[in-house]
Amino acid sequence: MNAYFCDGFNKTNGVKEVQDILSLAIRQPAMSDQLLLAEDDAVTVPDCLDFTLQRFTYDRPLPVEDVAMVVYQPAKRGQTAAIELRYCVAGNKYCQNPGCTDRVCVDGHKDNCVQKSPSIDMITVRFQPSFIQSLQKGATSSTLFDMQSRKPFVKTIQPSTKSKEVLEQMVHHNYDGALKNIFLQSKALELLLFSSDQFVQNDTDDRFGCRFLTQLEDREKIEKARDILLEQLDAPITIRDLARRVAMNECYLKKGFKAMYGTTIYDYFQKERMEKAKNLLYERGMSVSEVAILMGYSCISHFSTAFKKHTGLKPCELLLR
C-alpha cells in the first residue's frame, strides 16, 4: 500500500487519508498489505462534526505505533477554517461473534470469544467550519482557534493517554439518536482540548509543525528517504547524500523527517538496523561476527556497543536466552 496524503477534507479522499496515517503508524510500509477492512462507520452531528471509524484486522504480528495528526485548512474566500483530527490506535480485538457487544472483544472483558483477531482503529473527527467559527469568537491567545491568517499545515502528535481513553469511549457506547450526537460532540471537544494543549506546550517556532509538509511532493520525498534507509541498513548513508538522492534541502529533510516519524534520521536508522540485527541473531541463529559484517560493521566491539545501547543486552547475552 503506497502512502500519500490528500489536502482538504473531501469525503472521497478517505482512502488517501488512511494511507497517509498508516505510513506513520506502521514502520514497514509493505506490512500494511496485511490489513483487512472489518468495519466502516460514519456519523454526522449536524452543525458540529463528522465522525468516521474504520477498523482493520490482521492475522500476523504487526508493529503498530499509536499516532495522531492535526490537519488545519485556513479560511478561503468567505469560508471559515476547518480542523480535522486523525488517529490510528491499536490494541482492540475484533470479533464477528454476534454475541459480542459492538462486535469488539476488549482484552480482559471478552475472554469467551474464540473468533477474535487484533485490530487497528482509524478514527477521524472533522469539525465543521461553522462550528470552528463559533469557537473562534473572542479568541485572544495563540491556540488552534486563532489561526485565520495561517497557512495549511499537518502536524503529527503522540496521542496522550487521555485522548486514547476518549477515543475508546467514542467507539464503545450505547447511546442513540440525539443522545448519541450530544455524547460524540462532548467527547470530540475533549479531543480538541487535549490537542490544543499539546500545541500550547510546544515552542512557538514548532507549534504549527513543518508547513512545507502540507505539500504532497515534500512528504513523498521524505517517505522515499525513509525507504532508502530501510533498503540499505547494511550501508550507512550520510544525510547529505540522502538529501541529494531525494532532491531535498538537508535542513528540510531533517526537520520534516523528525516531524513525520518522531525521531532523527540517525536514530531511526540505528533503531531499524539493530532490530534487523536482533532478528538475524535470535530468529536466524547467525553468529555475532556474521551479523556485525552484514550490518556494515568492521569492528565487532562497535557493533556490540551499538546493539547494547538499543536493546540493553550485548549480542552474546541475547544468544544465551
TrEMBL record:
Keywords: DNA-binding, Transcription, Transcription regulation. Gene3D superfamilies: Homeodomain-like. Residues 223-321 form the HTH araC/xylS-type domain. PROSITE patterns: HTH_ARAC_FAMILY_1, HTH_ARAC_FAMILY_2. It comes from the Bacteria. InterPro entries: Homeodomain-like_sf, HTH_AraC, HTH_AraC-typ_CS, PchR_regulatory_protein. GO terms for molecular function: DNA-binding transcription factor activity; sequence-specific DNA binding. It holds the Pfam family HTH_18. PANTHER family: REGULATORY PROTEIN PCHR. This is AraC-like DNA-binding protein.
